[in-house]
From TrEMBL:
This is Putative NBD/HSP70 family sugar kinase. It comes from the Bacteria. Pfam families: ROK. It comes from Sulfitobacter noctilucicola. InterPro entries: ATPase_NBD (IPR043129), ROK (IPR000600), WH-like_DNA-bd_sf (IPR036388), WH_DNA-bd_sf (IPR036390). Belongs to the ROK (NagC/XylR) family.
Length: 420
């Protein structure tokens, strides 16, 4: 994998983090708001801070002086603004070395880690493949340790410079408790993953459901930066969803929310891997396609070893115009439209981002899917919600994990807790 080029491409944007300010009830300290404003814009002059945050020029000077004193901000010679006239202004930017963050995406077949500095810019990444089956928590922690060692080795850095580590994985994850209630990666339920991780590595760790990590990536680095409400729907081995409402990641009360894949679309319908019937996932995910494809095309019978083979044969057949293969995907597409129209009617997002490896195949997302969604919406052809495809890789997910950790470490920095 050509990690360096991927990093350069992903780092191309200026600044990172949500561009809209948080709702007033979050009551962030002013210093934090100034710091996050500068990070979101890449750099900013004191007059911009004063104007956009509604503080007096004197306060802007005092606040930025404090942040400079703390080693978090520094002056840059000039700022390029489109309409700047006259002499260049002095701007402020985040000191990149003020802290480092690691973001990890744990996956079925491989784990990916990214190292980012305090501006959110990625400086190194590593991917390690592993055997594809669920394992004990100790096994997975061993793998993470190896992954982090390889990452730090590549960057020439020590773990002590890392202020926090974000970890995203599939499953039901207690983002506050650090308990993994269930994950396809682990062979047991209710594992105290966060505590075990911190005990082993001695750095703060922030766990999150992987669809939420990807949603963080869109909120911090992607199409969601300037939006108040948007949804991310991921279609891979399962169907996941993340949601930003009022500029904040929505998590629900008990970790049961946003399980779009397990919303029912058919009473007593197809068997889902969750054990129930009629779930959206049972019509849409990889295993559903393999099940359908194996029958429709008489491909190799579904077997554990043959899963990927059947899936790639099915994709090849569809690409080559095989009608039966295309029908399998078209049917999945209609169920996708059904699921998306339900998301629109429940949450009314400005944008739905479709994400997943399979989105790289155009025939999976033909205009018929959008037309089907339009037809299923009450607005009938006037649907204002946009639907975009973002076929990113594991590095996007890992980067979302850096955003989660960066967000937490920043919060702790300005709200009393020490974050190393
Ligand atoms: Zn299910």
């Amino acid at each position: 994998m050509d990690g360096e080029r991927d990093i350069a491409q992903l780092n191309a944007a200026t600044g990172c983090g949500p561009l809209l300010s948080s709702p007033p009830e979050t009551k962030q300290p002013l210093r934090q708001r100034v710091f996050e404003y500068v990070r979101a814009h890449g750099n900013a002059a004191r007059s911009d801070i004063s104007r956009d945050l509604g503080v007096s020029p004197g306060s802007a000077t005092t606040l930025t002086a404090e942040l400079m004193q703390a080693g978090l901000l520094r002056e840059v010679a000039e700022v390029q603004r489109e309409q700047s006239r006259g002499r260049p202004r002095v701007a402020l930017e985040i000191v990149p070395e003020a802290g480092y963050i690691i973001g990890i995406k744990l996956g079925d077949a491989q784990h990916t880690a990214a190292l980012a500095d305090f501006t959110g810019t990625m400086v190194a990444d590593v991917t390690i493949r592993h055997a594809r089956n669920s394992r004990s928590m100790a096994d997975v922690l061993d793998e993470i340790e190896t992954l982090i060692e390889a990452l730090l080795d590549k960057a020439g850095m020590q773990l002590s410079a890392v202020h926090g580590i974000g970890v995203g994985m599939a499953g039901i994850i207690g983002h506050e408790t650090g308990i993994v209630h269930w994950s396809p990666l682990l062979d047991a339920r209710d594992q105290p993953f966060g505590d075990a991780f911190e005990a082993r590595l001695g750095r703060p760790v922030f766990l999150e459901n992987d669809a939420n990590m990807l949603t963080m990536a869109e909120l911090w680095f992607g199409a969601g930066r300037g939006l108040r409400d948007f949804a991310v729907v991921t279609i891979e081995n399962g169907v996941g969803m993340g949601l930003v409402l009022d500029n904040q990641l929505y998590r629900g009360s008990f970790g049961m929310g946003l399980e779009l894949g397990h919303t029912k679309v058919q009473m007593d319908g197809a068997l889902c891997r969750c054990g129930q019937r009629g779930c959206l996932e049972a019509y849409l995910s990889d295993y559903a396609l393999v099940r359908e494809g194996a029958t429709a095309l008489n491909l190799a019978p579904e077997a554990k070893a043959g899963f990927q083979v059947v899936l790639s044969d099915l994709l090849k057949e569809a690409q080559n115009g095989n009608i039966a293969a295309r029908k399998v995907f078209q049917r999945a597409g209609r169920f996708l439209a059904l699921g998306l129209s339900n998301v629109i009617h429940l949450f009314d997002p400005a944008l739905i981002i479709l994400s997943g490896d399979r989105m790289t195949h155009d025939f999976m997302f033909e205009e018929t899917v959008v037309e089907d969604v339009q037809a299923l919406c009450l607005s009938r052809g006037q649907m204002p919600c946009q639907i975009k495809v973002h076929s990113g890789g594991d590095l996007d997910w890992a980067r979302g994990a850096t955003a989660r950790a960066l967000s937490e470490v920043t919060h702790d920095l300005f709200n009393g807790d020490t974050a190393g």
